[in-house]
Write a structure and sequence with these properties.
two-stranded antiparallel sheet; mainly alpha
Length: 601
Amino acid sequence: MDTDFQTQWDLARYFYTGLDDPRLRADIDSIVPRFREFVSRFSGRIRNADADTLAEYYDASGALHDQLQSVELYLFYRSSLDTQDTEVAKLMGEVEALNIEAEKLWLPLEQEWKELWSDTLKALAQSPLLAPHKNAIEQKANNLRYLLDESAERVATFKSRALSVPETLREELAGSFVFDMQMDGEMRTMTEDEVRTLRMHHDRDVRKRAYESLRRVYNTRQNQITLSRTYTQIVKDWVSDVELRGYAGVMSARNVREELDDTTVDMLLQETVEHANLYQRYFELKRKHLGLDTLYDYDATASIASSKRTFDFSEAIQLHLDTVRDFDKEFHAHSVRMLKEGRIDVFPSHGKRGGAFACYTKNSPEFVLLNYTGDLRDVATISHELGHAVHGYLSQIQSHTGFHSPLSLAETASVFCETLLSERLIRTLDDEWIRELMDARLQDIMATIFRQIQYITFEKRVHESIASGMELTYRELNALWREEQIRFTGASVTYSTLAEEESGWSMIPHIFSTPFYCYAYAFGNILVFALLDRYRREGASFIPEYKSILASGGSKRPKELLMEHGFDIGSPEFYRSAFRSIGAMLDEYEALIPDASRSWR
């Protein structure tokens, strides 16, 4: 590996020298005054704004963003490196309080936007002066119908702080859980992440004990009561907001944020449910790979690996670099630049945030956090997160308002890069490793499409039930969860717990913090199948078009952007084509089973 490559973040190069850097304190102290100055500058001007005024407003808003983002990014990165750093946590709390104060200052301006009326805003959006902000203005116009009057919005702002308590309660409660697990003849106390990892263990007894360890904690009556009350309170707040603001349905607020219409999202859900036979086929083939008579729920995420091989980071990063170099020199150059400039933190350390992420925003360099341990999934994670990072890099040509793509497009580059890496590995590995890699890829695909949509169908039933006036106990939530599980897995998975004890919903953080968020993962994966199909058919000539999609950021609505490039997300065929590709992958997976029978469908 190139000796210039760094494996730790160099935060001082981009932000502050430390928590005692006087520039940090000065920037924190400037948050509210800068907001107050901005509001004063535009107060009374928005309700009668012309194109010149709006152009001035957006330029000033971008400048304000640039002035203030360093504080939040720096504290977020410091917290990610050490979640137990109390000084960082204290400063983050202070900044959160200041941001709430600033948001209250902003409310009168939001009301002025409402006075412009939707049609006026949409007409102004056509001005050449406002071309960089066209989609943002049209999105604001679409949202105006859901804006309450100033006094109601002020109450909503105050309420939002109080209503963050249930979400925080769930996080703190789950974070306090400890799990007992017998390993190697002794009882060990583990974190939830450690136990979840053991559900992939090659030893079936270990998997079963890991599954039971999770259930022992989550299934206590006290925890089930607390988590169900927490969740239903969050849902009640969501559905009351739906009614107050006049959204068409319980999912419409999320769809508006994702810039997708209800009809398109309904089609995604419907097509996924109708192709659940692929999910069932995967589990039946997995049962055969594992040599089991019955596939239980604790077998569903099992690894089929028989090899203990690991990859050094130098080997793994070279695999990524070789892959992106063969695809596009700009992708390759950006990954090299991030490695040389201290923007990838690679290895686990005490207190470091788990998992992996990429963070990028307008006029700030992209950063990636990994917890690299050397297994095959970690190799794929490198390409996944650096795919996110190149998406952010290419989007820098957009304005502040057009930079961030909605979540429905946010997984595009990450999954695309990860798939390119997988295809490269398949060309070089022996059959046993190909079998493991195919299983890992399919497991990820099934989780990000079918399982995520199962979360959504469960959420939808819960939200609609509570909106109709029903009260749901934890036993009823458990029963609904089991019904949705069986809706997707059919008879391919045998469940080892009774329906009334199926607490899986309570282990999903997203349904508490960001309702209906998870369908964005499914949509993103389906889109990547369409992009890869074009790339395979057209080769290098498609790369500029693909990069144009990434570089568009959030400057256009997904449906409009993708239609310009020949992808019609309003057509059932868009989704069915992806499911045919998944079917072809299952054929390959089946062929890797010794003496496999192709009769099961």
